[in-house]
Design brief:
It is built from twelve helices and 18 strands. With 344 residues, it is α+β, with helices and mostly antiparallel strands. It folds into three domains: 124 residues, 2-Layer Sandwich (Nucleotidyltransferase, domain 5), CATH 3.30.420; 35 residues, no CATH class; 165 residues, Nucleotidyltransferase, domain 5 (2-Layer Sandwich).
Amino acid sequence: MIFDKLIGVFSNDMGIDLGTANTLVLVRNEGIIINEPSVVAIKSDKHGRQRILAVGREAKEMVGKTPGDIQAIKPMKDGVIADFDVTEKMIRYFIEKAHKRKAFIRPRIIICVPYGLTQVERKAVKESALSAGAREVYLIEEPMAAAIGAGLPVKEPQGNLVVDIGGGTTEIGVISLGGLVVSKSIRVAGNKIDQAIADYVKKKYNLIIGDRVAEEIKIEIGTALPLKEPKEMVVTGRDQVGGLLNTITITSEDAYEAMKEPIKMITEALKDVLEQTPPELAGDIIENGITLTGGGALIRNLDRYLSEAVKIPVFIAEEPLLAVAKGTGKVLDEIEILQQLADE
């Protein structure tokens, strides 16, 4: 026990929200110190040897713009590790950047993972963090971390429902007495919405746009319900007929039409969870409402859309993008929750 306390003094324990779109790193007693895109730029020499050129924001700037010997890789896909080696390099980079080699002992790390990750996938996440320099690795499921980070009373004997819409997955969970009672993870989230926008623009306007432009459309003029005062945005891409660059004006009505299907899929998943929720907890959820977290929570009118669809109040968490990372920080501060995770 004394040894554990000494370790706490000399080690900068961390929480990592290892997201498909962004990775956030929280250091105990310091808060969130890293919030960067989950992208790694790698340069290959003529012998096939690779070295990291950039990680995070700098690497994201290179996406779609690199010469042949440089690759900008997104190692996380749909909430899981798609490229083990690159993920390990990315985690190592973030650990070293956060740790700054100040501590005598390697950090204890909590990593958020999507609900329903297979044992093989969970093992891959753990091993990548251990290989990157962690002393111990604990996994916490994203709906639980999001609920804790959003300030919901997860330990109480009452139902709380959280919907965390990230880049790769949407995590929905009903939480009571510190556990997930009903949970669902679907691989429809921010990235699928971006892809739907790109497909719509290609089909309607014969214009090919990249992921970054599609994401900008979602952020600038995207909406889950039609707007009373429509918005417009000028977009540049490549004409798929002539092959030349072209500039068009996209409206919020276009964005609404493009985003309809993935948002409908998220809504159906939420309805499934509500249908499986025990009657004893259903009354609590109707009374407490549904909490939205993750980047998707910021989509215009999504709270209204979901509320109208399920006839339950929907609230956006304070700082929804940071909820999962904040949840890991609170778990780090409460050793009994950490021990409970270790026993699972």
